[in-house]
Amino acid sequence: MKIIKPYFNFDDERGHIRGIINQGPWEEINYVFSKKGTIRANHYHKNIKELFIIMEGTIKIDFFNIKTPDQIEMKTAKKGDVFLFEKEIFHRFNVMEDSIWLNVLSQKIDPNNPDIHTFEGHI
């Protein structure tokens, strides 16, 4: 999980502009609302990178490289956080409070052959 820092910030009397990301190819953007106590994701992608922009709420994230599943990491993401999962990184979101985020994909999900894979090992 790579934390993405703003590439610029601008403030004046009108408000604030935050530069979220200015790199990478992005083909699909999704708005996600999740209720407290639910689980999202619980998968990995073989070919897709995924960027997340947390707009509201708090999410606990478990993640690991599928090649080293015994090296589970955990992070908490909250409003304002931006992070990226590279290919082959299993990720599971435990929604701690009602949350809203943007999910940005490097490739469109093909409904006939989605690049969404479960992990068969124990986590």
Element-level helix/strand string: EEEEEEEEEEE
Q: Which word captures the global form?
A: globular
**How much strand?**
over 45%
CATH superfamily: Jelly Rolls
Please state the structural category: mainly beta
Largest sheet: 5 strands, antiparallel
Question: What's the overall average pLDDT, rounded?
Answer: 94
Total of domains = 1
CATH topology (fold) name: Jelly Rolls
Proportion of residues in helical segments: under 10%
The order of strands across the largest sheet is 1-9-6-11-4
Give a summary of the structure in a few sentences.
The protein has one domain (2-105): Jelly Rolls, CATH 2.60.120.10.
Describe this structure in words.
The structure is a single chain. The protein is mainly beta and 123 residues long. The protein contains no helices and eleven strands. It has a single domain (2-105), classed as Jelly Rolls (Sandwich). Strand 2 (8-12) and strand 3 (15-19) form a beta hairpin. The mean pLDDT is 94.
